[in-house]
Amino acid sequence: MPVFKKLSSFTCLKMKIAVLGGYQTKFGELWYKSLEDLIFEACLGAIKEAGIDKKKIEIAFVGNKLSGNLSNQNHLGALLAELLQINIPVVRTEAACASGGMAVAQACLAIQSGQYDFALVVGAEKMTDLPAEQVSSGLMSAASLAEQQSGFSFVGLYALMAKRYLADFGCQEQDLAQPAVKNHWHASFNPKAQFPFPLTIDKVMGSSLIAEPLRLLECSPISDGAAALVLANPRKVFSEKQVFIKASIQQNDSLSLCKREKITGIKSAKMAAKKAYCQAGLGPQDLSLIEVHDCFSIAEIIALEDLGIYKTGEAYLAERNGEVKLGGKRPVNLSGGLKACGHPVGATGVKQIVEIVNQLKGRAGRRQMVNPLVGLAHNVGGTGGTAIVHILQK
Amino acid sequence: MPVFKKLSSFTCLKMKIAVLGGYQTKFGELWYKSLEDLIFEACLGAIKEAGIDKKKIEIAFVGNKLSGNLSNQNHLGALLAELLQINIPVVRTEAACASGGMAVAQACLAIQSGQYDFALVVGAEKMTDLPAEQVSSGLMSAASLAEQQSGFSFVGLYALMAKRYLADFGCQEQDLAQPAVKNHWHASFNPKAQFPFPLTIDKVMGSSLIAEPLRLLECSPISDGAAALVLANPRKVFSEKQVFIKASIQQNDSLSLCKREKITGIKSAKMAAKKAYCQAGLGPQDLSLIEVHDCFSIAEIIALEDLGIYKTGEAYLAERNGEVKLGGKRPVNLSGGLKACGHPVGATGVKQIVEIVNQLKGRAGRRQMVNPLVGLAHNVGGTGGTAIVHILQK
Fold first, then answer.
1. With bands split at pLDDT 50, 70 and 90, how would you rate the model's confidence at B11?
2. What gap in Å lies between CA A325 and CA A355, rounded to an integer?
């Protein structure tokens, strides 16, 4: 493969992987659906949309964080092989809330290796219908032991980042409500969203403080759901109208927030974005739409800066002036984001890409934007111990 | 890369990945060592042996099954980044007891992709020093829900396979004791082994029945431990005396034992072996030594047949006549195997390869065999829902 450009120590290998199909289940409190049901629906949906026989699939990837902790079900590779009745390699990846993005990234590497031409990727999580304590404790397995033992929750950790951000950049508490309001508005056009209804700033500001300055309606919910993709070596598919993955980059940093150089930005996401732009031969200015990991409202603001779309300390102004809304200059989280579409953790990274594919293919229904060309998905694990960036182009 | 040969629907891409370093920690009940300690020791050991600066490593993989269930610690990619203070992508793979083999296989794909030249792989598990019930329940997370709810343990599931094997092939209960005795003998030469002492057939046969016909001393133990490898694109390293991975194949099958066509063999292992021979351009006759997944004594016997080394129903005869012992025609489990070296589940698949590398490099100490050229590692998840085969050559 041709080398695109050198980025210090990183060699930007060009890549081009075709997305043949994508599918998202409804996200929400799906008490009547098991993890297996969700995985099965998403995989079949993606395979159907890809229009290929399932026997063509040579390798599969399952992104999941919590089924070991919550349902005592590990070994999801074999579970998928059983569900789909396919004898192929199936790899389970886990990277906290970036488990789905990691599954996509590993599938890309598998295709780039030349060993496999058709890959199925599914991200899935079953989180509701369980004791709240068990879910909270399971979620904290993505943090360091010291953070767990100090009694932190993830909203507590992100609240530290928010506090510092507010103090450093003149951002107001009310600004933190903006991403939630925008994302709920987008979700109101998405029938697959967990909360398909709008919110007002007043409603967000009137909701309970969970960890100062973050309020209940600035936090992503506990959700069930799955999403799947069929990826392929573009030389093995014959169709003009394809969407391609042009960059797939994972980057890790320390697990513990206290070991980071700064907490008003996420270093792993910055590094991943830089490498992804290099790999795709594109820059922030080329992006038509973005799906970012808004696990908490502050996370969306920080993400837009880490991705180089806005300068440090300025993204909240873009949230204020509306340019990141549907109809604005560069819409962010048209799916409704983690906040309003829902956040079944293992599914999120895959769902982001499904949303971008739907937008690029012009079939996003009432939330369709006008003629998008390039989309970026930004998936984060924990407080940024893992960050995964994908860039798609049609 | 050149295509080696077509195997029905599978394209055997040739591969060649250099193993620069390998390291295994002591396996055992290491109450004074945490999962982090084990990972750290193994990684540093492998990097030191590889003789490279850790900054050369571009991607890392962590194979682990149980840390989410047992220690509420997921997100091991970020944990490793923190421990080693490296900002690279780190992928966690999970496939029950094949989590380590999966990590190696994914690292091979990453190098084959051309995106990464140097990869670190670590497999690790911390299983002791916890309530027995929690460990037993955690281990069963590798089985299907129906198997869990029926009250099965893994020894129970493998006992079904053993019963059928005894009934079909004239194998005696005493033959099941042979692999355990052989592997303990090998372990007596391995200072890293959990049980570095010999056993007699009488001692095995006198141990308690756990699930008829399997006895306590035919079962692999609960262990702590880690193993690590540094892998590289051979075009990026300059040394004549290398050991190479010539095949790396994963194959899945149904999670549930009851959904298999046969239970006296493991289909996923058979398929993986066939593809691996094809990829390496080698056959069973070329193997100097083999590390197989002897989680229970019957599993070693079945493995040797699945790998095409002995005909169906005949491997136990080779155990009887001693040709699989050190000094025999083709030694199996020189490390001591899972039975006697120990079975920290996430570490096992990596440790098998470390053992083969040590043998091929002629530094296996008192258990060194004479001039081995080719080794095969066979790593299984659950009852065969996942099987991973690696072939190494010097």
1. confident
2. 15
The pLDDT, as a whole number, for residue A1 is 37
Distance CA(A231)–CA(B146), nearest Å, equals 32
Quote the mean pLDDT of chain B.
Answer: 96
**pLDDT of amino acid A32:** 95
- pLDDT, tens digit, 9 for 90 and up, residues B312-333: 999 999 999 999 999 999 999 9
Binary contact (A259, B109; C-beta < 8 A): no
The DSSP bridge pattern shows strands B59-63 and B118-125 to be parallel
For residue B108, indicate whether it is catalytic. Answer: no
CB of A175 within 8 Å of any CB in chain B? Answer: no
Summarize the confidence of residues B161-166 as an average pLDDT.
98
* pLDDT attached to residue B241: 76
Query: What pairs with residue A95 in β-bridges?
Result: A97
Alpha carbon dihedral A140, A145, A147, A153, in 10-degree steps, equals 10
Note the pLDDT tens digit of each residue in B134-143. Answer: 999 999 999 9
The pLDDT tens digits for B182-206 are: 999 999 999 999 999 999 999 999 9
Instruction: Please state the separation of Cα B382 from the chain's center in Å.
Output: 12
Band of residue B9 on the pLDDT scale cut at 50, 70, 90: low
Q: Give me the pLDDT at residue A8, please.
A: 58
Whether this model's ipTM surpasses 0.90 comes out as yes
The residues of A that are catalytic are 97, 343
List the Cα angle B21/B26/B32 in 5-degree steps.
125
- In this complex, do A78 and B95 lie within 8 Å of one another by their Cβ atoms? yes
Nearest by CB: B72 against A11, A85, A148: A148
Mean pLDDT in residue range B83-98: 97
DSSP for A162-198?
A: HHHHHHHH---HHHHHHHHHHHHHHHTT-TT-SS-S-
**Which one, of B127, B99, B132, B140, lies nearest residue B35 by Cα?**
B127
Kindly list the distances between the CA atom of residue B295 and the CA atoms of A89, B123, B381, B384, in Å, as whole numbers in the listed order.
21, 17, 10, 11
Q: Which residues pair with A387 in a beta bridge?
A: A251, A380
Average pLDDT over residues B279-285: 97
Coil, strand or helix at A92: strand
**Which DSSP state fits B176?**
H
The whole-angstrom separation of Cα A219 and Cα A228 is: 25
Q: In the block, which residue shows the tokens 């590692």?
A: B377
DSSP H or E segment with residue A90: strand A90-94
Q: Is B184 in the active site? A: no
C-beta neighbour count of A122 within 10 angstroms: 32
CA-CA distance, B159 to B308, in Å (whole number)? 22
Cβ of residue A75 closer than 8 Å to a chain B Cβ? yes
Q: Which of A11, A39, A75 to mutate to test the interface with B (most CBs of B within 10 A)?
A: A75
Å between A160 CA and nearest CA of chain B? 19
- Select A3-131+220-393's CATH number: 3.90.930.12, 3.40.50.1820, 3.40.47.10, 3.40.50.150: 3.40.47.10
State what percent of residues in chain B have pLDDT above 70.
Answer: 97
Mean local confidence (pLDDT), B254-260: 96
How close does chain A come to B107, measured CA to CA in Å?
10
| Per-residue pLDDT tens over the stretch A267-297 | 999 999 999 999 999 999 999 999 999 999 9
* pLDDT < 50: residue spans in chain A: 1-4
Residues of chain B contacting residue A1, judged by C-beta atoms under 8 Å apart: 114
Helix, strand, coil % over all residues of chain A, rounded to 5: 40, 20, 35
Tell me the DSSP string of A110-179.
Answer: HHHTTS-SEEEEEEEE--SSS-HHHHHHHHGGGS-HHHHHTT--HHHHHHHHHHHHHHHH---HHHHHHH
A-B contacts at Cβ under 8 angstroms: 218
Is the preceding peptide bond at A213 cis, omega within 30 degrees of 0?
A: yes
